[in-house]
């Protein structure tokens, strides 16, 4: 007796869940994350903005979090999915600690776990709408990797998500080298974040830089970058072409 | 009164009737053939004595590189040059057209062309065609009023800037400009920065590649540095050249012409009737 037949969507090939439970578009999003390996570990930078479409809704979103003792996770994309990922990782780290065997999950392991999670979610047409950057150092081995929302993962000496791929990676490819000092690394990251601030509409001038070394993870207080707007050509741009812009 | 059977000439302007049909076909999956695009990095910057324009040299037809060393910096006037990105045919045609219009205007006025003239002619034409002429241009030059640099978008809007980039590699090149540009650059510093920006596009963008072309325009004149940098040479070419294996032995050579040579009449053009 089936008076109330369950509401099956037309495309029930995709499974029993109804459409309203699948991620179709992101709502509150964070913009790029940029990270690089330096002498003592990993440096990662992200701004603190959460955009709601074209509005800058939240200006105090921490998009980088420490995972366990050895890793640092930064995310761009849907903020709620990032928070969900943090809960999955919390559980993962908790179970790892319960073994109490002196061993702890390193960045490579966490990165692999995240890749599996992201890829399997995408296969079910219900992705976690994030691009993640996972960096860390364990037993002297530095590790920096990235996973996208469709499960593409790779590791490199410097990574970026979103607009950072187009604007920051060319700079990093040219100017990164092995054994950067902390100051040089921060300067390089700030250079990238400044270009992103100028040219990415969803970037805001309030960023944090996180550092992870063997000693642990520290994340700076939010601060802003100095920008330069005093080019004489900007003061009266249409001097030579009156009427245009 | 007889019914007028005179063919009325079309009212002028572009007829957009087929555009709707094309959109409908594209939605059904029938795509037009891919045309030659200059997926590109083009840049311009103003330095203390004038303008420097730069461009890469790769032209693509979909995923294939169809021209490894094409010229994207087009001549507009002795003191004005224009880099073009987008559909190669559109950038060539539109810059050629405005260049000839400028020359006629020079004859008419007896004066050196101004950059704003070229700018206005280009943007009027592009706006007229509502973005269907897919040409994104970086126009630079030095005239009596000083050095000027403009970008022109396919829909007809323009910007006046101290440094500008266009094309698929524009973000990579802009990253270099935003971090390294300052005012009052010397000629060598300017050339170095432009070359760096184009190289950034060449190595970080798939639509750009091959060599770097540079054009320096100052009040005194212009300097067109074709293939100023060649950061992508052919590697692994055999240094000893190609030698073919030992041929078969030649025993006898006899050449018999198949027909007698034709008598050539000296006077008279072959095209003339007599």
From TrEMBL, chain A:
List, alphabetically, the PROSITE patterns matched.
PROTEASOME_BETA_1, PROTEASOME_BETA_2
| Keyword set includes Cytoplasm | yes
Major location category of this protein: cytoplasm
Domain of life (superkingdom): Eukaryota
Keyword Manganese listed? The answer is: no
Q: Where in the cell is it found?
A: Cytoplasm; Nucleus
User: What keyword terms does UniProt attach to this protein?
Assistant: Cytoplasm, Nucleus, Proteasome
Quaternary structure note: Component of the 20S core complex of the 26S proteasome. The 26S proteasome is composed of a core protease (CP), known as the 20S proteasome, capped at one or both ends by the 19S regulatory particle (RP/PA700). The 20S proteasome core is composed of 28 subunits that are arranged in four stacked rings, resulting in a barrel-shaped structure. The two end rings are each formed by seven alpha subunits, and the two central rings are each formed by seven beta subunits. The catalytic chamber with the active sites is on the inside of the barrel.
Q: Which family does it belong to?
A: Belongs to the peptidase T1B family.
What does this protein's UniProt record list under function?
Non-catalytic component of the proteasome.
Q: What is this protein called?
A: Proteasome subunit beta
Automatic annotation (TrEMBL), chain B:
Q: What is its main location?
A: cytoplasm
A matching Pfam family: Proteasome
InterPro entries for this protein: Ntn_hydrolases_N (IPR029055), Pept_T1A_subB (IPR000243), Proteasome_bsu_CS (IPR016050), Proteasome_sua/b (IPR001353), Proteasome_suB-type (IPR023333)
The record's keywords, sorted A to Z, are: Cytoplasm, Hydrolase, Nucleus, Protease, Proteasome, Threonine protease
Catalyzed reactions per annotation: Cleavage of peptide bonds with very broad specificity
Localization of this protein: Cytoplasm; Nucleus
Q: Which domain of life is it from?
A: Eukaryota
**What family is this?**
Belongs to the peptidase T1B family.
Q: What does this protein do?
A: The proteasome is a multicatalytic proteinase complex which is characterized by its ability to cleave peptides with Arg, Phe, Tyr, Leu, and Glu adjacent to the leaving group at neutral or slightly basic pH. The proteasome has an ATP-dependent proteolytic activity. Component of the proteasome, a multicatalytic proteinase complex which is characterized by its ability to cleave peptides with Arg, Phe, Tyr, Leu, and Glu adjacent to the leaving group at neutral or slightly basic pH. The proteasome has an ATP-dependent proteolytic activity.
- Summary of subunit composition and partner proteins: Component of the 20S core complex of the 26S proteasome. The 26S proteasome is composed of a core protease (CP), known as the 20S proteasome, capped at one or both ends by the 19S regulatory particle (RP/PA700). The 20S proteasome core is composed of 28 subunits that are arranged in four stacked rings, resulting in a barrel-shaped structure. The two end rings are each formed by seven alpha subunits, and the two central rings are each formed by seven beta subunits. The catalytic chamber with the active sites is on the inside of the barrel.
Q: What protein name is recorded for this chain?
A: Proteasome subunit beta
């Amino acid at each position: 007796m089936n008076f109330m037949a369950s509401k099956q969507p037309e495309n029930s090939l995709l499974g029993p869940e109804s459409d309203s439970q699948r991620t179709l578009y992101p709502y509150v999003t964070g913009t790029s994350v940029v990270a690089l390996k330096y002498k003592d570990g990993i440096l990662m930078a992200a701004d603190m903005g959460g955009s709601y479409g074209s509005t800058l809704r939240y200006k105090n979103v921490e998009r980088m979090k420490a995972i366990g003792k050895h890793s640092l996770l930064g995310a761009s994309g849907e903020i709620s999915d990032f928070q969900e990922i943090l809960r999955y990782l919390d559980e993962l780290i908790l179970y790892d600690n319960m073994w109490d065997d002196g061993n702890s999950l390193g960045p490579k392991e966490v990165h692999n776990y995240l890749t599996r999670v992201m890829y399997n979610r995408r296969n079910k047409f219900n992705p976690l709408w994030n691009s993640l950057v996972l960096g860390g150092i364990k037993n002297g081995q530095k590790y920096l990797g990235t996973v996208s929302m469709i499960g593409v993962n790779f590791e490199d000496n410097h990574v970026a998500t979103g607009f950072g791929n187009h604007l920051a990676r060319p700079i990093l490819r040219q100017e990164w080298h092995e054994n950067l000092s902390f100051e040089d690394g921060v300067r390089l990251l700030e250079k990238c974040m400044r270009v992103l601030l100028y040219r990415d509409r969803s970037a805001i001038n309030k960023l944090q830089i996180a550092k992870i070394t063997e000693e642990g993870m520290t994340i700076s207080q939010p601060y802003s970058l100095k920008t330069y707007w005093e080019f004489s050509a900007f003061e009266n741009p249409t001097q030579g072409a009156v009427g245009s812009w | 009164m007889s019914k007028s059977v005179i063919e009325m000439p079309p009212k002028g302007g572009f007829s957009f009737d087929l555009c709707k049909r094309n959109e409908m076909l594209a939605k059904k999956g029938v795509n037009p053939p891919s045309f030659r695009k200059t997926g590109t990095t083009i840049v311009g910057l103003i330095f203390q004595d004038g303008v420097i324009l730069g461009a890469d040299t790769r032209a693509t037809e979909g995923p294939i590189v169809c021209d490894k060393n094409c010229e994207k910096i087009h001549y507009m006037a002795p003191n004005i040059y224009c880099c073009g990105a987008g559909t190669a045919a559109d950038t060539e045609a539109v810059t050629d057209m405005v260049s000839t219009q400028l020359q006629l205007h020079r004859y008419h006025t007896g004066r050196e062309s101004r950059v704003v003239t070229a700018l206005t002619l280009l943007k009027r034409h592009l706006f007229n065609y509502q973005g269907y002429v897919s040409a994104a241009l970086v126009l630079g030059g030095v005239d009596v009023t000083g050095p000027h640099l403009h970008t022109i978008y396919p829909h007809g809007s323009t910007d006046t800037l101290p440094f500008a980039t266009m094309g698929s590699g524009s973000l990579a090149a802009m990253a270099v400009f935003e971090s390294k540009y300052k005012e009052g650059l010397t000629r060598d510093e300017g050339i170095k920065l432009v070359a760096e920006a184009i190289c950034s596009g060449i190595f970080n963008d798939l639509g750009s590649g091959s060599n770097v072309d540079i054009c320096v325009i100052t009040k005194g004149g212009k300097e067109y540095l074709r293939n100023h940098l060649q950061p992508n040479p052919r590697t692994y070419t055999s240094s000893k050249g190609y030698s073919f294996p030992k041929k078969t032995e030649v025993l006898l050579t006899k050449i018999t012409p198949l027909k007698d040579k034709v008598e050539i009449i000296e006077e008279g053009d072959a095209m003339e009737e007599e």
